[in-house]
Automatic annotation (TrEMBL):
Pfam families: KLRAQ, PPP1R21_C, PPP1R21_helical
Transmembrane segments: none
Subcellular location field: Early endosome
Assigned keywords, A-Z: Coiled coil, Endosome, RNA-binding
Protein name: Protein phosphatase 1 regulatory subunit 21
Ranges of compositional bias, category Low complexity: 95-104
Chain segments annotated as coiled-coil in the UniProt record: 3-72, 137-196, 527-561, 654-688
The organism's place on the tree of life at top rank: Eukaryota
GO CC annotation: early endosome
Originating organism: Canis lupus familiaris (Dog)
Entry keyword Transmembrane helix: no
Length: 738
């Protein structure tokens, strides 16, 4: 998890770094473009300055020339004013002087006209230059405003990037601190893992030595005691009785019970459907109570009347299959012999469907040819004809796959185990197809019944029969949907339960081996019951022996008590007889003899009892010793079995620990490699961050310097433009005044 987080962070940092590099390239390009634009503007300003200077020089020369011309015009005007009175006085002077003055005047007029035209041309050039200057000034001002806006935007971008870089630097520093803490914790965990691995290696070494000795001992026992390995060959292994899985059997019986209920519902719906279809034929399109129906419908009705003999066996076959699945059997495809019977019953029902299908289609055609049949009803009849064909085809498809599933219980090579899952999947698809067909039949038949109910000749008997057929079709649709969803929900369990069988083998070889296995299972169950009975009888015998010993001890105690009572009674008799007189002793010699005889007879009776009680004591002692040693042997065998099971469990735990140790070593190596790579990546990212930080700082300083220089140049250009405007305004005013 730590390595994944580090890699994710490194990827994010790399993506941010690539984004920053791309933004840096864009900024560099923008700065270079701005530098080129500023250089071009400088060149344009220089050219404009040169052109303005030229125009200013021309303006100066023109103003100077205009002044000269003005002075000359004034002089000429003065001379003209002086010459006019003289001309009046000297009109009579010669024609030569008048002609000379006229020639001079004409020359002056031409020269003045040329100067006026040149002055107008210069005024036009000046006006055009002024207009061009104003246009260039407006363009430069707009360009300056755009450049200022771009400079402000670039400055904002630079400020945002600096903030972002600072935030990323802080974030990376925090991540670095977290990663350092995490690396320290990982180093501690790695040290702990090393210590644990060393301990596990020691334990593993000891366990390996112990288990290797036990393995050698067990291998020697196996080679000496086991005659042959019956799991080596599949033919022999198929005869072995698998472990009894009671949960699996109960689950299979429950599933079979649900399937039986669904099949019973389907059987009831099919019986109703065929029966009500027969009733409908008797009343539509011709009512048999009024007129005779067609021979075709008579034959069709006769066949439909036999539907119970084909439909009922389906329920019986499923019931037999359910009864064959008990808690004591092994339920796989090789042992489900009753599935073949159900498949045969389904085949007979499909033969029945094939037999009635042509009559059903012809009966629908006969309804279409009737005068009562409308175009809509004819269309519904055609749709029902197609639906009946689909229904028969779906049942044939379903019977094919069920017949394939029944093959393993009858033919050894009828179906390979690798194809079991595909066949079961196709059974589910066929059931869903059956459900879809029944939905179409229900839809089309409901439309057909609605149209027939609107006919003027529709009788109450026809309406009732149609409702009954619709209810049976709806029941068929619901039953098909239930059994299709039921099979789809349990198909994974069916596929998984196919491997249920003998261990270390692909399964049963043939139905004969499966049958033999079931017989062996019954024999094994009977043998286990006999062993249980023997065990119970042995327990009863041991209890009876214990009771026998108890009662023998009780009898011995009773004998001892009896002897004590006899002795006490004899002593009492002696004490009473000694207190009496001699007469009495003489009178009763026979009584004393009698009592003596009784005492001797009692002693004689006790002596054989003592002598005979010795034999049962020896036998009981031997039985006790035997029972004690048998109990001890049983206790030792149970302890030995417990020790063997513990050793196997311990061996499995050792193997698991060794695997976990190997995985821990691999994960440790992977983590160390990841830590190395992470450290290298951290150092590389730190170097890249420092370099990028420096480069960005340098670029920012360069950009700030460049922006300052641009601002200075722009201020200078503004000043020059202002001066040019002032000079141009002054020149224009002078020209206007002139």
């Amino acid at each position: 998890m730590a390595s994944a987080e580090l890699q994710g962070k490194y990827q994010k940092l790399a993506q941010e770094y690539s984004k920053l590099r791309a933004q840096n390239q864009v900024l560099k390009k923008g700065v270079v473009d701005e530098q080129a634009n500023s250089a071009a503007l400088k060149e344009q300003l220089k050219m404009k300055d040169q052109s303005l200077r030229k125009l200013q020089q021309e303006m100066d020369s023109l103003t100077f020339r205009n002044l000269q011309l003005a002075k000359r015009v004034e002089l000429l005007q003065d001379e003209l004013a002086l010459s006019e009175p003289r001309g009046k006085k000297n009109k009579k002077s010669g024609e030569s002087s008048s002609q000379l003055s006229q020639e001079q005047k004409s020359v002056f007029d031409e020269d003045l006209q040329k100067k006026i035209e040149e002055n107008e041309r210069l005024h036009i050039q000046f006006f055009e230059a002024d207009e061009q200057h104003k246009h260039v000034e407006a363009e430069l001002r707009s360009r300056l405003a755009t450049l200022e806006m771009e400079a402000a935007q670039h400055q904002a971008v630079v400020d945002g990037l600096t903030r972002k870089y600072m935030e990323t630097i802080e974030k990376l520093q925090n991540d670095k601190a977290k990663l350092e803490v995490k690396s320290q914790t990982l180093e501690k965990e790695a040290k702990e893992c090393r210590l644990r691995t060393e301990e596990c290696q020691l334990q593993l070494k000891n366990l390996h030595e112990d288990l290797s000795g036990r393995l050698e001992e067990s291998l020697s026992i196996i080679t000496e005691k086991v005659p042959f390995n019956d799991t080596k060959y599949s033919q022999y292994n198929a005869l072995n009785v698998p472990l009894h899985n009671r949960r699996h059997q109960l689950k299979m019986r429950d599933i079979a019970g649900q399937a039986l209920a669904f099949v019973q519902d389907l059987v009831t719906a099919l019986l109703n459907f065929h029966t009500y279809t027969e009733q409908r034929i008797q009343i539509f399109p011709i009512d048999s109570a009024i007129d005779t129906i067609s021979p075709l419908n008579q034959k069709f009705s006769q066949y439909l009347h036999e539907n119970a003999s084909y439909v009922r066996p389906l329920e019986e076959g499923m019931l037999h299959l359910f009864e064959s699945i008990t808690e004591d059997t092994v339920t796989v495809l090789e042992t489900t012999v009753k599935l073949k019977t159900f498949s045969e019953h389904l085949t007979s029902y499909i033969c029945f469907l094939r037999k009635i299908l042509p009559y059903q289609l012809k009966s629908l055609e006969e309804e279409c040819e009737s005068s009562l049949c409308t175009s809509a009803l004819r269309a519904r009849n055609l749709e029902l004809s197609q639906d009946m064909k689909k229904m028969t085809a779906v049942f044939e498809k379903l019977q094919t796959y069920i017949g394939l599933l029944a093959l393993p219980s009858t033919e050894p090579d009828g179906l390979l185990r690798t194809n079991y899952s595909s066949v079961l999947t196709n059974v589910g698809a066929a059931l869903h197809g059956f459900h879809d067909v029944m939905k179409d039949i229900s839809k089309h038949y409901s439309q057909k019944a609605a149209i027939e109910h609107e006919l003027p000749t529709a009788t109450q008997k026809l309406i009732t029969t149609n409702d009954c057929i619709l209810s049976s079709v709806v029941a068929l649709t619901n039953g098909a949907g239930k059994i299709a969803s039921f099979f789809s929900n349990n198909v994974d369990y069916f596929i998984a339960s196919l491997s249920y069988g003998p261990k270390t083998a692909s399964g049963f070889i043939s139905p004969l081996s499966a049958e033999c296995m079931l017989q062996y299972k019954k024999k094994a169950a009977a043998y286990m019951k006999a062993l249980r009975k023997v065990q119970q009888s042995l327990e009863k015998i041991s209890k009876l022996e214990q009771e026998k010993e108890h009662w023998m001890l009780e009898a011995q105690l009773a004998k001892i008590k009896l002897e004590k009572e006899n002795q006490r009674f004899a002593d009492k008799l002696r004490s009473t007889s000694s207190g009496q007189g001699l007469g009495l002793a003489q009178e009763n010699p026979t009584g004393a003899n009698a009592t003596g005889q009784e005492e001797t007879s009692a002693r004689a009776a006790l002596e054989p009892a003592h002598s005979t009680s010795l034999v049962p004591d020896v036998e009981s002692r031997e039985d006790l010793i035997k029972n004690h040693y048998m109990a001890r042997i049983m206790e030792l065998t149970s302890q030995l079995q417990l020790a063997d099971s513990k050793s196997v469990h311990f061996y499995a735990e050792c193997r698991a620990l060794s695997k976990r140790l190997a995985l821990a070593e691999k994960s440790k190596e992977a983590l160390t490699e990841e830590m190395k790579v992470a450290g290298q990546n951290i150092s590389r990212l730190q170097d890249e961050l420092t370099t990028t930080k420096r480069s960005y700082e340098d670029q920012l300083s360069m950009m700030s310097d460049h922006l300052c220089s641009m601002n200075e140049t722009l201020s200078k250009q503004r000043e020059e433009i202002d001066t040019l405007k002032m000079s141009s305004k002054g020149n224009s005013k002078k020209n206007k005044s002139r």
